[in-house]
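G., before I forget:
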Amino acid sequence: AAAAAPSLKNAALLRPGVLQATRIFHTGQPNLAPVPPLPEHGGKVRFGLLPEEFFQFLYPKTGVTGPYVLGTGLILRLLSKEIYAITPETFSVISTIGFLVYIVKKHGASVGEFADKLNEQKIAQLEEVKQASIKQIQDAIDMEKSQQALVQKRHYLFDVQRNNIAMALEVTYREQLHRVYREVKNRLDYHISVQNYDASEGTRAHDKLGGEACGAEHLCTAGEGNSRQVHCRSKAARKEGSSSASYVNTSIPIKTARNS
Amino acid sequence: MNENLFTSFTTPVILGLPLVTLIVLFPSLLFPTSNRLVSNRFVTLQQWMLQLVSKQMMSIHNSKGQTWTLMLMSLILFIGSTNLLGLLPHSFTPTTQLSMNLGMAIPLWAGAVITGFRNKTKASLAHFLPQGTPTPLIPMLVIIETISLFIQPMALAVRLTANITAGHLLIHLIGGATLALMSISTTTALITFTILILLTILEFAVAMIQAYVFTLLVSLYLHDNT
């Protein structure tokens, strides 16, 4: 910017906006040479008028009282020769200057502190805005970091969910498989037991009792009752089975009929 | 002594050249401008004071009246600083000259009144008749109100001149009394000197108050007319 500014200054002499262009901010040294900084406090003075160096200058020759004697002599000469005449104005001088000196001595420091406080308030206000902005950005950064960390750990959640779903699917599948197996086994067991009974006792018992329908009262022993019960049951079951078998058998011709 | 009493009120001329121009322009040197945010104590205090005064004075005006802020603020700064500088020994106060005060008062008053007549003609003319006057008195009252309107600039100028001149004269006279009494009886001289000190304090206050009053009245005339 410091290099660009001189070229901007030399652009034209009085074109509009050139005055604003020359008023540049924050380009470092306002002068082109390194100017030494101003001292913080001015030179020390006595009585607000006479510099301390004057007293130091006279000290080797006349000691401490030298300048005071010189001052007194000068004042007395001015008065006695009426170079400075005492007029009514003199008294107004005494009162005015005395009043001003009194005010400055009494309230000077507090007024200076008040001015410093005003400046400090201005800077503090701007500093507060800056700090608030920095804090806001810092908070945003921290929140972003924490959210990134959370995102890193999210895959655990998904793994668990995936595993859960897989397990549920597996369970459902196995459950259905088991049910199918159980149903089929049920049917097949029935057929097997029917066949087994037919093969072993069913026909003997049937022939023994003459193949009558049961359901009426019988004279029998316990064992026979059992077999009769078994027989009746099996007869009924056979009827059922035959009916189911016939059902099954009729279903097939129906199927075939349908097919054909 | 008679000759000496009024010489402090003659316009200073050095070798025939009017020095009064420089004296009138001098207070502007005491109000430095600074473009910095944080300046030295002097500039900071002046900026703070100016902000305080402008807020207090211009808050009663509407936006049209607030265009006069720069004028009124420079007015109060000028009158205040010239009055205060005039209290220093052997100095000349421009505001003791009636010519200058008239030159300040008449254009400002006329500006306010003419603005009022141009923009709010009916309301400005209505100022000539206060509300609720009995009908037979109306012609008299209109004449009186007209006179009071035209006396406003005269009153502004003469008020300022008279106050400052009277203050300076009193300081001079009591100083002279102290001087005269010194050789007669020192105690009386001391009493007179105490009076002089009190008067000086009063004069400092009067200097600032007069500036305030002048500007306040102009702003009031403005408020009536915007």
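The longest strand of chain B covers residues 13-14. The first helix of chain B runs from residue 2 to 7.

More on Monday.
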